[in-house]
Amino acid sequence: MDVIARSGDTLHYYSQLFDLPLILVQDANRGIGDGPLLPGQLVKIPGFKVGTRTMNRETSLNVVAEELKLPVDALFLVNQEESLPLRGGGGTLVVPQRVQQRVVTVGVPYSYDILCHDLRKLWKTYPFLTLESAGTSVLKNELFHVKSGRGEKKVHINGSFHANEWITTAILMVFLNDYLLALTNHRAIRGVNMLALYESCLLSAVPMVDPDGVNLVVDGPPSEEPYRTLVTKLNKGNPTFKDWKANIRGVDLNNQLPARWEIEKARKPQAAAPRDYPGDYPLSEPEARAMARLAEEEDFDRVIALHTQGKEFYWGFEQEEPEEAEAIAQEFARVSGYKAVRYVDSYAGYKDWFIQTFRRPGFTIELGEGVNPLPLSQFQDIYDDTLGIFLASLYM
């Protein structure tokens, strides 16, 4: 919600007026100092939206303010003073409403278009978010990079490295939404103070690493050539792409990183395929290059890559993981019930490369259990199981 500042007001005053942490109001209004505001200056109030209220003879501004749990001055701020409905009169009152429900989409296959729609809604509601681009896909779809928080510790989470694992994006987006809701509503999640996490951590997320592949699985082949013809041929004419894991060029993005890549190259498909083909050389695909570049530029302290399925997670690589990774893995297992697996016969993945390159903790979390793509009927169970991992990744 945006308000028009009055002369002499400050961001500190608005944080008190709307009962919001000052740090969130400041971050929502980057570039505005803490001194007196200029009249007419536009100020963003995170976690609020604008509604209306029809006034009648029995209703006063004090009654409305009490219902909203806000000072009367908040009503004066969002209305033109000369047009405020008077007690005993009628008219329509503009009212600020605290957002208390999720705004992201749930219950449907999660496509790239839905992601774009939901990210716009999140940013509009919570403008202290930073929304950037980590790069683009083969089809020039943005790899959106979401950041929130002020802390020195940088924690990165990503989803949908594999196309038919799109449910990981939906799970991650719901966690982001719940985290933001808790921040602006003074709520804890499972007893964990979200504002303390905001102040101590910077949360980084790329919710959908393979947007072209996800759209292929969810919506079918693209209109662009030669990719429409290519995927149809690789899929052997099958109009259903539910088993497709790769990007739109038939390269498995989680077999693309230079971490013993040659092992995967020797034993996996030798040409483009719906799954497992590691490419002609490491980082041949723009999506993989973007994710590697992001880690190098942002200097993450740890990364979590969301995949499906198995109800387990992998946290080691060639004995190159740091000592602190074991304690984090133990906490992940405790809060989720997932099995902690140190080593697995797999190479060239994102967490493998991160551990090898930075000697910092990296984790691959296999959400849920069954056959990919996992059905949406599992969504709530997966979220309940893994919510603790999301939180622990920030507080550990």
From TrEMBL:
Residues 108-394 form the Peptidase M14 domain. GO terms for cellular component: extracellular space. Its cofactor is Zn(2+). GO terms for molecular function: metallocarboxypeptidase activity; zinc ion binding. Gene3D superfamilies: Zn peptidases. One of its GO terms (biological process) is proteolysis. Signal peptide: none annotated. The active site is at E366. It holds the Pfam family Peptidase_M14. Keywords: Hydrolase, Metal-binding, Metalloprotease, Protease, Zinc. Belongs to the peptidase M14 family. This is Gamma-D-glutamyl-L-diamino acid endopeptidase.
